[in-house]
Write a structure and sequence with these properties.
Bound molecules: heme C
Largest sheet: 3 strands, mixed
Low-confidence stretches: 1-31
CATH topology of the largest domain: Cytochrome Bc1 Complex, Chain D, domain 2
Shape: flat
Radius of gyration: 27 Å
Strand order of the largest sheet: 1-2-3
Strand content: 5-15%
Number of domains: 3
Number of helices: 19
Length: 343
């Protein structure tokens, strides 16, 4: 009983994590973040940084927490302004009482990872003490949209007729097990073995390449079904967000949309903020309900006082980017005024 409870809690925290990861990947994820951290779980490289910090005894001077003491600097402070280049130089050349690590392959090869770890400590995102590896979520799901691999799992479930016995919902019947229950305790290894060797009334799929190659995807799909994160029925692929924005930094395509808005003088009528005036519509409002197709039509065909942009290549080729930019403005995610490219 307590074991089951534990598993349930684990599943819950995984789905919370998935939510967090999905959000993160919508927001700042164009450049890879230096590290990923949630509680005391960190990505693999950062975990390696922590391991090097311990095994190479950086803590013998800087303390296990990195906070140092009268003779050794507090790395939590130092890292605030430390560039990677300076950090590397410090370790390779040594500095004052700190000897050079140029002959220590573990440290030299691990400089990026050490840097990530110490930056995370310094940012307050990584706690002192023991860390574990952050596991990738098995699947991403939002409503009936799932990541590509999981969508593939669903497709295999349908096309290979798993549902002819387990039902299309996975819930089975008197003769065939309810996979929503089975998957709660099914390891990937056991799942694989079951499909490859067959089991009781279920034949072996070892000769079915689609199933064999798709075992990971099937597993992700059925786990998501079993967790209650993926609904029965038709699924679609989780689409990339239209734009990414943080403060006044936006992704490259959206930045291009803003540039076109300015250089092609949309603002001469709709104002530089997009808010329009008595004679020209407020695009922040219009964009709430305009589909991409409707948007395209207005630009290509023109409407009323607004002339057609059909002959303007910059606008025609930039319609997607303009749409992303104006949607972001309309959503309140992108501020008026100058933008920069997200690094
Ligand atoms: C023998 C003690 C000692 C060991 C071991 C040691 N350090 Fe240092 N470290 C120091 C001292 C002392 C300084 C300050 C040097 C100076 O500015 O003169 C320093 C400076 C630094 C700085 C620059 C701090 C700043 O304020 O710019 C970094 C980063 C750093 N150490 C990281 C590490 C890492 C990572 C390790 C392990 C691979 C390590 N240190 C091992 C003593 C040590
Ligand atoms: C011919 C009917 C049939 C088909 C088709 C079928 N299964 Fe099964 N499956 C069964 C039966 C019956 C069992 C129970 C076997 C036993 O334990 O004796 C089972 C067991 C399983 C189990 C283990 C359940 C548990 O409780 O441990 C999994 C997982 C599974 N099937 C997945 C699939 C997938 C995925 C497919 C499609 C690739 C599939 N099955 C196709 C009949 C079928
Ligand atoms: C000459 C002034 C003018 C220029 C330049 C202009 N527009 Fe317009 N735009 C208008 C007017 C006026 C309308 C309303 C047309 C109507 O419904 O009669 C409009 C309508 C729109 C609509 C549809 C709004 C809705 O509520 O359906 C969009 C979207 C739009 N413009 C975007 C743009 C973009 C993007 C640019 C630059 C590439 C641009 N406009 C350039 C005047 C202009």
């Amino acid at each position: 009983m307590s074991k089951l409870f534990c598993i349930n809690l684990k599943i819950m925290s995984v789905s919370v994590m998935i939510g967090a990861l999905v959000l993160f990947s919508i927001l700042p994820a164009i450049a890879q973040p230096l590290y990923k951290a949630e509680g005391n779980s960190v990505d693999k490289a950062t975990l390696n940084g922590w391991n090097i910090y311990r095994t190479e005894a950086c803590g013998s001077c800087h303390q296990s927490t990195g906070e140092g003491n009268v003779s050794n600097p507090n790395l939590l402070h130092s890292m605030k302004n430390q560039t990677k280049e300076h950090f590397r130089q410090m370790l390779i050349e040594g500095h004052g009482n700190m000897y050079s690590y140029s002959g220590n392959k573990t440290v030299v090869d691990g400089i990026n990872d050490l840097y990530a770890y110490l930056k995370g400590r310094s940012d307050g995102a990584i706690p002192a003490g023991d860390l574990t590896e952050l596991v990738q979520p098995l699947y991403k799901a939002e409503g009936n949209s799932v990541d590509k691999a999981t969508l593939n799992g669903w497709n295999i479930y349908r096309t290979e007729a798993c549902g002819s016995c387990h039902q299309s919902t996975g819930e089975g019947n008197v003769s065939n097990p309810n996979l929503l229950h089975s998957m709660k305790n099914q390891t990937k290894e056991h799942f694989r073995q079951m499909l490859i060797e067959g089991h009781g009334n279920m034949y072996s799929y070892s000769g079915n390449k689609t199933v064999v190659d798709g075992i990971n995807d099937l597993y992700a799909y059925l786990k998501g079904r079993s967790d209650g994160a993926i609904p029965a029925g038709d699924l679609t692929e989780l689409v990339q967000p239209l734009y990414k924005a943080e403060g006044n930094s936006v992704d490259k395509a959206t930045l291009n949309g803003w540039n076109i808005y300015r250089t092609e003088a949309c603002g001469s009528c709709h104002q530089s903020t997009g808010e329009g005036n008595v004679s020209n519509p407020n695009l922040l409002r219009s964009m709430k309900n305009l589909t991409k197709d409707q948007f395209r039509r207005v630009l290509v065909q023109g409407r009323g006082i607004m002339y057609s942009f059909r002959g303007n290549k910059t606008v025609v080729y930039g319609i997607d980017d303009l749409y992303a930019y104006l949607k972001g403005r309309s959503d309140g995610a992108i501020p008026a005024g100058d933008l920069t490219e997200m690094k």
